Amino acid sequence: MTVACEPIGSTVLRDIVAAATRAPSAENTQPWRLQWIGDRLRVLHDRSRAMSSDIDSMLDLTGIGTLIESLVIAASSHGLQAEVEALEGLASYGQLRPVTDLLFEACSDTPDPLTDTLESRCTTRRMDANRPLTPEQQQALLDAAEAFPQVRIDWVEDEDLRAVARLVGVGNRVRFEHQPFHAEIYENLRFTAEEALCTSDGLDVATLQLPLGAAGLMRVLRSWPLARIANSLGFSRGVARQASQEVLTSSGVALLSVDAANPECFVEGGRALQRVWLEATRLGLAFHPMASLPVFVAHAKRSCHSTLPPRQRGLITRMLDELHEQFPSLGDRTLQMSFRVGHGVPPARRTLRYSTEQVLQTAPTNEGVFG
After folding, report:
1. From 3.30.390.30, 3.40.109.10, 3.40.50.620, 3.30.470.20, which CATH number describes the 121-342 domain?
2. CATH 1.10.287.3510 applies to domain 10-119
3. Is the N end or the C end of the chain the one with fewer CB atoms within 10 Å?
4. Burial (0-12, 13-18, 19+ Cβ within 10 Å), 305
5. pLDDT of 197-235, one tens digit each?
């Protein structure tokens, strides 16, 4: 119950931001900036961080949704309730577009039970096979998203699981076979701890839990001419098989869809995804989001794949057809994310984040430049 309103001290604000900016984003691009404006914290979409494969900013806004939910959760540990107010019609500041304001009030409620998982949450790709989730675990993960009415989560089972495994494999294959997508992968990979520390973004290869020798091969295939040769010899098909096998050996696989392909739904979907992920962490489960399937489904729906080479265009077209055939219940809904859950050991190293000073800024001046 809200009992009073009071200003937030700078130390508390920075603590909230520091905890919340551990939130996940596609390829760890961290497409957000924050402004403290009087009595509110404004969340902005930093469009300079956009990836070329992202249609309608779906991935960026998913990440911003995970950040917003993390801010709400982190605030609760300081006795604060955060009200999220969507913003529409506000002018952008160059590449920065306002998304939401958060207003804080003193609150006597206990901290959100997911508070302690903000720091420990991570992506775990290496999972043990043949350890199914219990019905109670599945239900707990569904319940974690129930506060978001535009979001639906469907567990994938039996023959449907094989279909999702194939589709995820196709998505990963296309990423390695098309030069712009290949370049996007390498733009966000960090091959040494020093590289990761220098940028504080992207994916440290050490966090990917790759098989022995795979990191060295990935470094060699940074060269597109060499990657094309490797793909002609079956490398991209091998990537697809590996991704498919990971899906098949997961304890559980789910599809997260939203009512429509618009910013409001994508942000809400991101908030739901974060709560599900944190609940999985609280339950001691490993979690791995798989974005290639929804990304290329979006490409096919919007005919953005028309510029792809014929073979990759055909793969994506068949991906959309098979998804509709296998999951007619999706109907006109928008697939925003797929994810796998299981049992596994987290990576020894974690991806880095921008500092609070880099993320939290003062309000813009009349000229649109940050003061």
Report:
1. 3.40.109.10
2. no
3. N
4. buried
5. 999 999 999 999 998 899 999 999 999 999 999 999 999
